[in-house]
């Protein structure tokens, strides 16, 4: 018996961490045994950043880290950048497969005998793709019911970030934290928008990995715009792919807080249009394990790790199964085929018979 699997499976992969969600598609494709051009994938070095943490005035800041690999550990190096101080490189953290772990910045700074209260954070790791790992930074003051969330992210591919703010009342204030994630100096030009007109603010010179704060009420006061309750802010850096930014709004007296997201609207629109596009070099492998019923006596195997999708987002894998039991009789072998793609696992029930193959009963 000779059987060759040929299938294309489009899969939707969803990641949700706090308020973040993203959706993307990729494909599996089995080709004939004659094709052997499997792509070779290599590890890349990734740096993802969150622009703000605080441990002042009752705030507790924690980093939630998640390894999306189901079959291998992942080592991450956290680095803290205080607002007015040198970098603090923490001990590497090794996450077990599928493990989620919290890092308490308050406790960490105390253990390092550091007395900084505000700063930014970066996480560094080496993997085939950034999607095997996710992290979120939460800044919480439980007593005053205040909370800010910042997703660790790569810098946008452009040089522009924009956000909107809305003050709950006259006592509500807000801030934007902007960080340079590169190893060289960059210049950021902030612009406030109020009453349908722009107001240029003083440019910000950021050293490598430095973070600076923009206090919204203070800047509006300088512009004699104290009565403003809604507006926008734009940040333009001197280079692409170097800054991350985010902020928050709060009135501690009434327990009000809200996020202030900073994104590039054009990049957001482009990503929305690209949903369903192929993903290249996506780490993928599978296993095929025979069940208790194996009257065909098949020696089943899968494709080991170390391969990935090609330039068209297709994962090429080939299987041929032969048995002499189909010459004068029939036989049946049941198996479980498990696909592992970018830390996600998908199981299929496969039945091999002399006259065909069924997958999940079809």
Outline the structure in words:
By secondary structure, the chain is mainly beta. The chain folds into two domains: 3-14 and 281-359, no CATH class; 44-273, Hypothetical Protein Tm1070, Chain: A. Helices cover 6% and strands 51% of the residues. The strands form seven sheets. Strands 4, 6, 7, 8 and 10 form a five-stranded antiparallel beta sheet that branches. Strands 13, 15, 16, 17 and 19 form a five-stranded antiparallel beta sheet that branches. Strands 9-5-11-12 form a four-stranded antiparallel beta sheet. The model is unreliable at 1-42 (pLDDT under 50).
Q: DSSP helix count?
A: 3
- CATH architecture verdict of the largest domain: Sandwich
Strand content: over 45%
CATH topology of the largest domain: Hypothetical Protein Tm1070, Chain: A
> Radius of gyration from the CA trace?
26 Å
Total number of strands: 27
Helix content: under 10%
CATH superfamily of the largest domain: TM1070-like
Give me some keywords for this one.
362 residues; disordered N terminus; 2 domains; mainly beta; Hypothetical Protein Tm1070, Chain: A; single chain
